[in-house]
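Regression test case RT-17, inverse folding.

Input:
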């Protein structure tokens, strides 16, 4: 199994409730991957790269910068990743896949369309607040990926959008949502969740869970939910 396969498989082995370590990079707790399937050196590179990209930007960051933050030599970084762009790509791909898993799990529970929508919006809001560092790296540096890598990440973004749009459409079909344009409404709901990562800080006066609960209520207002 090559490094690509190891990384792809490892992204599925995330511990959703992993404890943070108190560092700024605690926001990527969901990248706490199985030690059996994802070598510690690669995990350290992920965390170091997120810090470096967030602080210096993609273009100003060198592979030497990432390696130093990870406690590796530049040659040690190349054992795991072929380039700086590949590091960014793997961070983006893993983060986007994990976001999709959060949405899928939230939508899979029992209940009505309104229950599913509030669960997805609430959980996605918590996810984006808890993982603001990695989310901002992905959002800000999507254009720095190669066209092929960018297309792969965007495909997952679009899949998440379709998941949420289908929930909105289901509520309309059930007669419990009053929505004129499901696409525009879905964009508004996604923006509500994702934008949390732009402003949330760990010392904010409300917890991610409290914000998620508020946004779930706001989501029902956006879709014009009718009382059961």
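Golden output:
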């Amino acid at each position: 199994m090559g490094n690509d396969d190891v990384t792809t498989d490892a992204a599925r082995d995330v511990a959703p409730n992993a404890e943070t370590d108190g560092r700024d990079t605690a926001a990527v707790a969901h990248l706490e991957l199985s030690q059996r399937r994802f070598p510690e050196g690669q995990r350290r590179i992920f965390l170091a790269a997120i810090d470096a990209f967030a602080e210096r930007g993609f273009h100003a960051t060198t592979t030497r910068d990432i390696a130093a933050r990870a406690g590796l030599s530049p040659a040690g970084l190349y054992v795991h990743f072929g380039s700086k762009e590949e590091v960014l790509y793997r961070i983006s791909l893993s983060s986007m896949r994990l976001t999709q898993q959060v949405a899928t799990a939230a939508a899979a529970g029992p209940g009505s369309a309104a229950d599913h929508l509030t669960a997805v919006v609430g959980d996605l809001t918590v996810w984006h607040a808890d993982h603001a560092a990695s989310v901002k790296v992905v959002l800000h540096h999507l254009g720095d990926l190669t066209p092929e890598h960018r297309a792969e990440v965007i495909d997952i973004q679009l899949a998440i959008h379709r998941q949420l749009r289908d929930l909105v459409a289901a509520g309309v079909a059930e007669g419990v949502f009053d929505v004129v344009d499901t696409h525009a409404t879905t964009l508004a709901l996604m923006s509500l969740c994702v934008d949390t990562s732009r402003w949330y800080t760990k010392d904010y006066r409300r917890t991610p869970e409290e914000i998620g609960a508020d946004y779930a209520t706001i989501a029902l207002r956006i879709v014009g939910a009718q009382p059961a």
